[in-house]
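Input for the complex:
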Amino acid sequence: MSIIAKRSACVLVQGITGAAARLHTKNMLDYGTKIIAGTKPGGGGGEVHGIPVYDSVAQAAEKHADLNTTILFVPPKGTKAAALEALNAGINIIIMVAEHVPLHDNLEVLEEADKKGALVIGPNTPGLISPSEQTKLGFVPSQYFIPGPIGVASRSGTLTYEIVSRLTLNGIGQTTCIGVGGDPIVGTPFPKILEFFEKDSETKAVLLIGEIGGTREEEAAEMIRDRKITKPVFVYLVGRTAPEGKRVGHAGALIEGSRGTIKSKLASFKEARVPVAETPADVIRIAKEILQKLGKEARYA
Amino acid sequence: MRLYEYEVKEIFQKYGLFTPKGQVVESAEEASRFASQIEGQVVIKPQVLTKRRGKAGMIRFASNSEEAFRQSQSVLGMMVNDERVSTLLVEEKIETAKEFYLGATIDYSSLKPVAIASPLGGMEIEEVAQKKAAKVKKIAFSISEGMTDQELEKLVSIFQPTERMLVKEVARTLCQIFQKYDAEMTEINPLALTKPGKAVALDAFLNVDDDSLFRHPDLVRARGISREEFEFEQSLKEKKWKYIEMDPEGEIGILSSGAGITMAILDLIKMRGGRPANFLDTAQMNAEGIYNAFSLFAGNPKLRVLLVNIFAGLNRCDDLAMGIKRYLQEHPLRMPLVVRMIGYKEDEGKSILKEINLETIRSLEDSVEKVIQIAKGTT
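Predicted:
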């Protein structure tokens, strides 16, 4: 088992004819992802790596009734229209990879997804990968991931690769690794992801890779404190030393007033008795400790 | 992108909101000429991007043209948060009966736009919300449909019955402006109720989402920075690079790819006592990109060492190594260079850099240790 990125995913790639989309469609297919259609306005009738291309999502959905997931390899300006198109065609998992999608566009997509009961991942995400399901949705470099008991959710792509590659080197595999997105507005932030991992029988422990800005880390900590999440959770937080008011990294990583400070996040996790790693090496140490406590069974699940 | 007060007021006027009669000036002479045309007092407001101008003592009043000249002269040229006051908005002073707060912003917890109203105008709304929560009304609304009449009614229920009609129309317009301008936040604080029963926006705030600026090209221009700085910013934006100056006393330059890992590197350096000077976060690096990126650091005299972090997932170590090699062969670097390199085609990348006698490091922590030693002069 795993979350969201499952073998049952029947995947559409929107904007499939672009250079990056072609490359990552190939990578996803090689990994085992079941991509069954692509779209490009005006590109209908063509093929990319043997995958049929349609003019619109509606046309693709008509031909492929089992489509349930879409990845948007679409520029930020076109992301809203593409996402709404997919939602209107009844697709219920939408992955928005683009960075720099306007905030109001994000809000509109999320509002519509809410009405339809659909799930939005991102924007500004490398996507997600479930090694045991041989399914990746997006462009995470799959060579660093192996199957195992840890669920990983992160606000940063590159930092995920850095950390997960070390887990993998130490033989600690993952159920699903998900980039929730680096923007201040994302469809599936940490609290929602924790609920998914809590319900997933294979996930034995969860690693959150968070950063300053926003209050999702604090909300996650509250859920753990209130025992809504019972699986062990551990955290790596970056931006500890970032100056206030300066946007050091992600658009979401901006501190304003007392909101989103490292102090507030550390205090929340402390209250919830969640171990917080200070360095990448620390993450591995904590992961090993947790797995040891859970016993052998979890380690090789 | 934050706009100047006078720019926001121009937008307000376009949408039919009342603002005090005023003029944008750049000299004390112009200010005094405008004041001479106004019967009562004038308010002199520096146009800077800092909020809290009042607290900084930058809002001045004048009863006649001589005083307007004097006050303007004393404010012009003042420095506020690295920004020099060069423009003033001189306005007639409005006699107010009451001062309210109206705003529209994004609630990042519920992920919905929210309209905010309070009868306590002129204060920071966060402060009011904290100290007198009962005096703040927040109503979430639909981004696609805007504030409905019913929602507006709820919003203005916090005011006296006789005031509601008037404020409701201002709130409706403000929410429209919020939507039209892709605002992160827009505020009228204070909104003055005058004795004759008019609602006038005394101050005006609007922060446009940077990522939406392709829809608002007319708003893009340099504010609070020089033309050169602005052009530099724009060129970085085009390349999707994030370049930040951190610490004027810093000694370590950082070239990395990805926001999260770059923040992690900054943390590691600072936790070990190092001082990062600046960093560049490139969205996706290739040979050409890394070659160009070096030029941002090469001429910086205060840098004692440059750390390059490469974790090749989608890109290739050998490609990036070629870019570094080409740069170094064409431009001798003034400062020592530490390259951390790991990932796809790592061995190939390593041998390319070996050709120019550059040893790479695999571990992130080791590379950080190395740059700190160099910066401190202990190697």
